[in-house]
Design a protein that fits this description.
Elements lengths: L14 E10 L2 E3 L2 E5 L5 E4 L11 E9 L1 E6 L21 H14 L2 H17 L2 E8 L15 H13 L2 E8 L20 H17 L3 E2 L1 E3 L7 H12 L7 E5 L3 H11 L3 H8 L6 E5 L5 H10 L2 E4 L1 H6 L7 H6 L3 E4 L9 H16 L18 H9 L21 E4 L14 H7 L6 E6 L2 E5 L2 E2 L2 H15 L2
Parallel strand pairs: 1-5, 6-7, 7-8, 8-9, 8-10, 10-11, 11-12, 12-13, 13-14
Antiparallel strand pairs: 1-2, 1-3, 3-4, 5-15, 15-16, 16-17, 17-18
Helix pairs in contact: 2-3, 2-14, 4-5, 12-13
């Protein structure tokens, strides 16, 4: 999960995999040869290294890079389907939904969190995600008591990722207030840190996370939950870590949030960040749904990434991100699963595209007729290629499936009825936009096959632990 490193000639042997069709940033290769070192990194694409032998493995189907999941709250997977009854409240939205989320959060212990997260990560892998940024604020025991090991819950998330075999960046989150100028509620005590305590947490888990194979990011929950001086203190703490930590923040998810921040800080949320923090490519702004034109242009120009979570944003009634204009302005964006109403690449990108089609009353809204690359004329390929920019949220700016990048590959099943008769020109359209939910056949994560014939290698044990945990939590 660290920044890509150049191939190391001392890593031997190089394993060669020949894919029937392989997507690369330069286009499809048929066949596509991939060289993978012992550390799970790509060392060659298209041509074998001079010292490599013949391919040792041949893989049928259409192979594409694994997709980064830039925003996850894994424990909320247990809440999906449990909040869909009508409310007597005048508004039924994020603010009413989160009461159910708080009740669930109060019950979860370390073993529970690991079981819930492993299941969510397994589902992600089976549906095309190979890395996850886990935006984590469930830090303490109930009533806010610290665990004997301060980073217990962060380390359990890394253990869950190892159980599933997914690449993971644990993103501990600073949470200090219930709203601007408001003390945390009793239900929020599990989330709360002072800046100093948060900095100690980051330093205490940095090395153990690396040992567990995970990376460390840093998050500010929101401008509602973190005051300006606290935000700056956390950013300074992040700068003292061994590796430059990517920075994440929830922002402008609802109109209520925008109004509260504007009243309390004197500016809309994204505008405040542009003016007071100076956004750059280290930053990921989660949701950023409600933007003024000035904010949208400023965010696009900043180099930061907007992390869009289309299924969760739809289920909570948040609104639609202004994606078409933002894309025209050169803005970077990525996708996440947030509360896990869906756990798949296809489900999230389909919702994203369909929401934009409804908003603009036309089809193929991101397909760019002016693009020199003819592949951009296909909505599936356009969506997929643009969303791969999500690697920036992990501090990874290398193109996928290039030398030095992680060997993360998703193979679409050529025998899937939904893909029947499709070639490289339309296979991503079919997978992402035609409802081909069963199209993922195999998944390689850092050079290791973790999904075969559409099923995760540890599906039985991970699913059993999840089911037992959920039954107990909701008994």
């Amino acid at each position: 999960m660290n920044a890509p490193r150049p191939p190391d000639d001392t890593r031997t042997p190089v394993r060669m995999v020949a894919f029937e069709h392989l997507w690369t940033p330069a286009g499809w290769l048929a066949p596509g040869l991939l060289g993978v070192d012992a550390g799970g990194r790509v060392v060659a694409v298209g041509e074998p290294p001079a010292d490599a032998g013949a391919p040792v493995e041949t893989v049928r189907g259409f192979a594409v890079p694994g997709m980064p999941n830039t925003h996850s709250h894994a424990f909320q997977r247990a809440l999906a389907g449990r909040t869909e009854s009508g409310s007597a409240a005048s508004e039924d939205n994020l603010w009413t939904w989160r009461h159910a989320m708080y009740r669930l959060a109060e019950r979860i212990g370390p073993d529970d969190l690991q079981a819930l997260a492993a299941f969510a990560y397994m589902e992600m892998l089976e549906h095309g995600f190979t890395r996850v940024a886990e935006f984590h604020y469930l830090h303490h025991a109930p009533q806010g008591r610290p665990y004997a090991q301060r980073g217990e819950m962060s380390l359990r998330l890394a253990a869950a990722a190892a159980d599933a075999g997914i690449g993971c960046m644990v993103v501990p989150t600073l949470y200090a207030h219930a709203g601007i100028g408001q003390a945390p509620t009793a239900q929020q005590q599990r989330f709360v840190h002072s800046v100093d305590a948060f900095a100690r947490l980051l330093h205490e888990i940095d090395e153990p996370l690396a040992t567990a194979g995970a990376r460390l990011g840093v998050a500010l929950h929101s401008l509602r939950a973190v005051a300006p001086d606290e935000l700056r203190g956390a950013v300074q703490a992040a700068a003292t870590l061994r590796d430059a930590a990517p920075l994440h923040i929830h922002v402008s998810e609802t109109r209520h949030e925008v109004e509260e921040v504007q009243a309390g800080l004197g500016a809309r949320p994204v505008q405040w960040l542009l003016d007071e923090v100076g956004l750059d490519r280290r930053w990921t702004l989660v949701h950023a749904t409600h933007l003024s034109e000035t904010e949208r242009r400023g965010l696009a120009a900043s180099g930061a990434t907007a992390a869009l979570c289309p299924m969760t944003e739809a289920m909570l009634g948040d609104g639609l991100f202004p994606l078409v204009d933002y894309q025209r302005e050169g803005g970077h964006w990525a996708i996440g699963t947030d509360s896990h109403y869906a756990s798949g690449v296809a489900a999230e990108l389909r919702m994203l595209e369909c929401g934009q089609r409804l908003a603009h009353a036309r089809r193929n809204v991101l397909a760019d007729a002016a693009a020199a690359d003819a592949r951009a004329l296909h909505s599936g390929e356009r969506l997929f290629g643009l969303a791969l920019a999500g690697g920036r949220s992990f501090g990874d700016f290398a193109a996928p499936l290039t030398p030095g990048s992680r060997a993360d590959v998703v193979v679409l099943d050529p025998a899937s009825p939904a893909l029947a008769g499709h070639d490289a020109a339309t296979v991503l359209d079919a997978w992402l936009l035609s409802g081909a939910a069963d199209a993922v056949q195999r998944v390689m994560c850092a050079g290791t096959w973790v999904v075969q014939d559409g099923r995760h290698h540890a599906r039985k044990s991970i699913t059993r632990a999840y089911a037992q945990t959920v039954r107990r939590l909701f008994a």
